[in-house]
Design a protein that fits this description.
- This protein is of the alpha+beta class.
- The chain has one domain.
- It is about 35% helix and about 20% strand.
- It contains 5 helices and 7 strands.
- The strands form 2 sheets. It has a 4-stranded mixed beta sheet. Strands 1-4-3 form a 3-stranded antiparallel beta sheet, with no helix packed on it.
- A hairpin with a 2-residue loop joins strand 6 and strand 7.
- The radius of gyration is 17 Å and the shape is flat.
- The two termini are about 30 Å apart.
């Protein structure tokens, strides 16, 4: 268990249904799309290096201190890394910025997200893949 930094705690307390304080990103990569299990296996192999990615927030009773990070005994990597289909490549190329923004918005557009429930998606059409 580790006490949350003052900056992280302030972001957590400011977040509500209209003020989204979480962040995300989308990357486009050229080349063949990796198999669904390859991405998940690569992330799983590196999770021991970043324990925070397997933790969730626990609030201190009566708000007598900053929230803490605790290991999530129910952590499920398949909830965080999953395949998402993109439109046909020709359609995607016609409006790539809008299409990618919409895809990213599906994952990041709800707030506050269940604490500790970040979503990472991946998928592809043709030779492109998108990951947030």
């Amino acid at each position: 268990m580790q006490t949350m930094s003052p900056l992280d705690a302030s972001f957590l307390h400011v977040e509500d249904a209209v003020t989204h304080m979480h962040i995300g990103s989308v990357g486009l990569f050229e080349g063949p799309v990796p198999r669904a299990g390859e991405v998940r296996d690569a992330v799983a192999a590196r999770l021991p290096l970043v324990p925070r990615y397997r933790q969730k927030v626990r609030f201190v009773p009566l708000a007598l201190g900053r929230p803490t990070w605790v290991d999530d005994p129910h952590f499920n990597l398949e909830y965080h890394v999953r395949r998402t289909a993109l439109p046909d490549i020709e359609v995607l190329c016609q409006g790539i910025e809008r299409g990618i923004a919409e895809l990213a918005g599906v994952g990041a557009g709800t707030a506050p997200r269940g604490r500790g429930r970040a979503v990472t998606t991946r998928g592809g059409a043709g030779s492109r893949a998108s990951r947030d």
